[in-house]
Amino acid sequence: MKYALAVMGLVAVVAIVSLWRVRYDVAIIGAIVILGLMVPVLVFAKLTRIAPKYFLGPARALMWGFVTLTIVTGACLFTAAAFRQPTGLYELMFANSAVRVPAPKPAPDLPPPEFVAQFIYRTNMLERTEFSTEPGRFPADKLDEFLTLSRLAYGIADKTNRAFQVDLTVKNVSREAVMLDLNERFFAMADDKGRNAELLYYCCAAKGNLLAAGEVRTVQLFFRDAGWHGKGVSSSAIYVRVQGLLPVVSASWKAPTLATAN
Length: 262
Hints:
- By secondary structure, the chain is of the alpha+beta class.
- It folds into two domains: about 1-95; about 115-260, Immunoglobulin-like (Sandwich), CATH 2.60.40.
- It has four helices and 13 strands.
- The chain has helices at about 1-20, 25-50, 50-85, 85-95; strands at about 115-120, 125-135, 145-155, 160-170, 180, 185-190, 200-205, 205-210, 215-225, 230, 235-245, 250-255, 260.
- A five-stranded antiparallel beta sheet has the order 1-3-4-9-7, with no helix packed on it.
- The longest helix is centred in the first third of the chain and has 32 residues, at about 50-85.
- The protein is rod-shaped and about 115 Å long.
- The termini are far apart.
- The model is unreliable at about 95-100 and about 105 (pLDDT under 50).
């Protein structure tokens, strides 16, 4: 009987330790299993007193088996808490015990500002001054089509901001789908004196999106006018610049400022 009490004591210790930060459903199942294991231990302990000749040997074997199982279980609980091994037990005890918080949904793309164009640049007013590409990824004879400046306009955005609208077209000129990485940091607008325009709006970011063969994606940006329209304009040219939109390493388009007569 004393062996049975010792085994039940060990099992109780392991049970108390295992309940720490374990999910409620796991704790309930564990308690049922432990109680179920205690029943045969107590039965055999009682039988050893009634008929020790027949039950003492099996009872001792059963108890030592429970002792071994308890030691192994305790060791696993300790290593799971201290070293996160075995991984499955650690995740069962700790990782899943925290309240699951749903992942935040990505913010939807904002609509573009209300824009009233006052001047639209003609094609012959736009000059591509730079187009450096990464070799080997796309057919060299089609790289010119990968990134183009499709529209540049000046006007009023949201009734208050004098701004430039920039539309760039990205086309997959390869025969296979490509992963598209679009980020506002790739795009800028500046004049020939190094003055940069403030980005008011950008659409649309893409990270790891697939662009099918021949598919076209439009990137739209609005930049606040940095003094490139009106009287007394000191700059003679503005540049739309793209850097790091691989396979385009860098690209630049030049357009005249919109100076008016005094």
